[in-house]
From TrEMBL:
InterPro entries: Amdntrnsf_FN0238. It holds the Pfam family DDAH_eukar. PANTHER family: AMIDINOTRANSFERASE. This is Amidinotransferase.
Length: 313
């Protein structure tokens, strides 16, 4: 009998874009406001680059073995794009055939935008239009994609932590074009420093959400977000500041060959409690990916995967 593919969830794409770096290194232009970023721990740059290349290769193979379609692009380093491994920041895709291109905070990240990725999407998926917000960069208006925003595609909410990478004018333009309600909040780490990207503290899946509520600094706004997620019917997995620091919030729900998967780093999975894992596994299988070198750059598995919410041709 032919296999029956699980029903697609608008929240959990079954295909992703990944970029495999050949000259990976933590980005000096993003170090000032990305407190998750670390130096290369004394290893030779060539060893760090080789480890990152191997981690992306292995992660892509693991995702494909679980039935996720992976479009893997290589960055050979000619354009000096140290954060190219995180493509979710410069573009996103949306049901109905829409693509958004985003204005990036760091000048060297602006070079990550690739026409070959967009052409692949146009060739293999149904694309109606590409809305390009990168023209906002000269005015200092930045919005770093699904790093700056965590999108609830079902309820049409764009959860957004205030930061240098999430300008309110750019956010309002996106929300108007794509019909999302912005829910903006302040978030800080255990030392009181603003958290640079929303997707390190929040993951919204189809039937659950991982949220670092302790990171939200306004009690009333925190209660509103908690209620909004609960009213959507999702179970809430509350993450501590320590778990946020281990990238437990930087996860993404995908649809694999045998059902929904929660892709996250091995480091993130290891810090979850048994009760948290049990709640998640009622709705999705946890798929840990080992990416310790990539995490030196201040991002993890969610940042590495640009979900494709488009219909195939």
């Amino acid at each position: 009998m032919p296999s029956i593919r699980p029903a697609r969830s608008i929240q959990a794409p079954d295909a992703v874009v990944m970029v495999r770096p050949h000259t990976f290194t933590p980005n000096p232009q993003t170090a000032a406001d990305n407190r998750f970023q670390r130096a290369g721990d004394g290893y030779a740059p060539s060893a760090v680059a080789a480890a990152a290349h191997a981690e992306v290769t292995a992660a892509a193979a693991t995702l494909e073995s679980h039935g996720v379609r992976v479009h893997l692009f290589d960055d050979t380093g000619e354009r000096n794009t140290p954060d190219s491994v995180f493509p979710n920041n410069w573009f996103s895709t949306h049901a109905g055939g829409h693509i958004a291109l985003y204005p990036m905070y760091s000048p060297n990240r602006r070079r990550e935008r690739r026409q070959d990725v967009i052409e692949m999407l146009r060739t293999q998926y149904r694309v109606q239009d590409v809305i390009d917000y990168s023209g906002l960069e000269p005015d200092g208006l930045f919005l770093e994609g699904t790093g700056a925003m965590v999108l609830d595609h079902v309820e049409r909410v764009a959860y957004t932590a205030r930061s240098n990478r999430a300008n309110p004018v750019a956010l309002e333009r996106f929300a108007t074009h794509f019909n999302y309600e912005p829910m903006v909040f302040d978030a800080a780490d255990a030392d009181g420093q603003a958290i640079y990207h929303t997707n390190v503290l929040m993951c919204v899946a189809t039937e659950f959400a991982l949220v670092g509520f302790d990171s939200l600094t306004n009690t009333a706004r925190c209660a509103e977000i908690r209620a909004r997620l609960a009213d959507s019917g999702r179970e809430l997995v509350e993450l501590s500041q320590a778990q946020i620091g281990e990238f437990a919030g930087n996860a993404i729900e995908l649809t694999g060959a045998n059902g929904r998967l929660l892709a996250m780093s091995a480091r993130a999975e290891a810090c979850l409690s048994p009760a948290q894992k049990q709640l998640i596994q009622r709705h999705a299988s946890i798929l840990p990916l080992s990416v310790p070198t990539i995490e030196l750059a201040g991002g993890s598995v969610r940042c590495m995967l640009a979900g494709i919410h488009l219909s195939r041709r």
